[in-house]
Amino acid sequence: MVTAFVVSIALAGCSLQSQVSALESLNIIFFKIGRADSIVLSNGDQTIVINKGEEEDGEEIVEYLEEEGIESIDYLIITHFDKDHVGGADTVLNEVDVQNVLVPDYESDSTDYLEFVTAMEEAGLTATVLTETLEFSTESASFTVYPPETDAYESENDYSLVVSVEHGENRFLFAGDAEEARLEEVMNQTEGEYTLLKVPHHGRLAANSETFFETVNPEYAIITSSDKNTEEEVVSALEELGTTIYLTREGNIQVSSNGNSIQVVQ
Question: Which region among 162-166, 201-205, 260-264 has the lowest average model confidence (pLDDT)?
Fold first, then answer.
């Protein structure tokens, strides 16, 4: 009886391993666009885009989508309305078919934001303004988008939407520009450790950054940065955890997940 039980557990384990191995790959690119964010996630024929960099970055991202044969974006997620996150969105909305747009619950009076709003209107789109956690799935990945929990913050960065992605055994966290107040919320909103972290706010250290890193405990971390960044303290804190760190200023970063492990190429 014991032998049969052990065999059945082993077979179940093999079955689970086979299911994970059969997952459609999740491919992610982090663009080298200076101290700005734009990330494209592809899973089968579905595409999710998180942020669009600055105004001048829009065309580069459109060109990448065209080169990859991507004709439609299933979800465009704008974490917040700083120019280095929303600036290129109008260009993409004007040139690429976008199905859904997710934004935080606040407005801005900046030129980049107003151009984004105009492009949305011209595309006949209405953004989904997140006030509650939203979940959706692609072919083999599940996405959870966490909104800010407070109506007003001292820093606009703390309005950042935070995106968690699960693909088989791999977990990815995209933390926008979250600063101290938002990081505290994120630690309560999310659970467990992550395979890869998009480091918040281009590697700027917040009072609770080290606690956040210890909670997330990423194997890999991506910092979207330019030559003007000073992220030494953040790099040091992550290195103490054994995290492998990549900086976008050194080139585009491509990540591929098969559900069991990930490969990072720069």
Answer: 201-205
- Grade residue 30 by pLDDT with cuts at 50, 70 and 90: very high
What are the tens digits of pLDDT across the range 192-225?
999 999 999 999 999 999 999 999 999 999 999 9
Contact present, 91 and 58 (Cβ < 8 Å): yes
User: Where do runs of H (alpha helix) occur along 123-231?
Assistant: 180-189, 209-216
Instruction: For the chain, give every domain's residue range.
Output: 24-265
CA distances from 195 to 97, 166, 167, 178, 179 (A): 31, 10, 10, 19, 21
- Confidence (pLDDT) at 21: 56
Closest to 175 measured CA to CA, from 238, 222, 244, 115: 222
**Amino acid at site 223:** I
Q: Decide: 192 and 171 in contact? Cβ < 8 Å.
A: yes
User: What does the angle CA 91 – CA 255 – CA 57 come to, to the nearest 5 degrees?
Assistant: 20
- Note whether 23 and 140 are within 8 A (CB): yes
Residue 14: C-alpha distances to residues 10, 44, 83 (Å): 6, 24, 48
Fold of 24-265: Metallo-beta-lactamase; Chain A (3.60.15)
pTM here is 0.91
4, pLDDT greater than 50: no
Any idea what DSSP says for residue 158? G
